[in-house]
Automatic annotation (TrEMBL):
GO molecular function: glutathione transferase activity
InterPro entries membership: Glutathione-S-Trfase_C-like, Glutathione-S-Trfase_C_sf, Glutathione_S-Trfase, Glutathione_S-Trfase_N, GST_C, GST_superfamily, Thioredoxin-like_sf
Domain GST N-terminal, chain residue ranges per copy: 2-85
Protein species of origin: Phaeomonas parva
Signal peptide: none
The protein, known as: Glutathione S-transferase
């Protein structure tokens, strides 16, 4: 029997859409949550010095395979659970949507980790907040508008096709970051003008297995913080 261990920090980040894929597909997995000290010890053993990391064992007694890069892991899991299309054209549309979400996320990530994007660290809080204002007012609206148009043209309430795919889980996870209120300078109402994007959040959360997972996670995190 195959086994799966997903290693990441105790945050949503780039692992939550993979977790949701496991949950939606009814596949048991070891959700290994590590802290920064544990990561520093583990980092040299990973393929690219990055998380998330999937350790996959096809059958008992076989050598585990370590898979890096969140989109590669998501596709791997998606194929196992039927949330990644077998048809190559349909798969291309899923890939295109997932790649476009990377275009949306990149400028946001640059406001958090500018050196990773070959940018100097912000010269004080005013500079950082000015960058967030440009993000919210000048960059994200056109990107969200394009994403909204894609969903409107599709017409099913899902990003691609007539049923949930891994693209929906990726979009859901990242769009939730923008509406979380955790990004100072980015209003939690930023998706209010994009009904299809907001509708996607509700649609994913209505999947019973996902709703159950999120309730359990909320309880776990609440207990952890008491």
């Amino acid at each position: 029997m195959a086994s799966y261990k997903l290693t990441y920090f105790d945050i949503n980040g780039r692992a939550e859409y993979i977790r949701l894929a496991f949950v939606a597909g009814g596949i048991e997995f070891d959700n290994e949550l590590i802290n920064r000290d544990m990561w520093q010890a583990m980092k040299p053993t990973t393929p690219f010095g990055q998380l998330p990391l999937l350790t996959y064992t096809k059958a008992e007694g076989e050598e585990p395979v370590k898979i890096a890069q969140s989109n590669a892991i998501l596709r791997f899991v998606g194929k196992a659970i039927g949330l990644y299309p077998e048809d190559p054209v349909a798969a291309m549309h899923v890939d295109s949507a997932m790649d476009y979400m990377e275009d949306i996320m990149a400028p946001m990530q640059a406001t958090i980790f500018p050196p990773r994007y070959a940018m100097p660290a912000w010269d004080g809080e005013d500079a950082r907040m000015a960058a967030r204002a440009r993000l919210a007012n000048d960059i994200l609206p056109s990107k969200f508008a394009a994403a909204e148009a894609l969903m409107a043209a599709n017409g099913s309430g899902w990003v691609v096709g007539d049923a949930m795919t891994i693209a929906d889980l990726k979009w859901y996870t990242h769009l939730n970051r923008f509406t979380s209120g955790d990004l100072d300078g980015v209003p939690a109402t930023i998706l209010d003008d994009y009904p299809n994007l907001k509708g996607l959040l509700a649609k994913v959360e209505a999947v019973p297995a996902i709703a159950e997972w999120q309730a359990a996670e909320q309880a776990r995190k609440a207990a952890k913080n008491t």
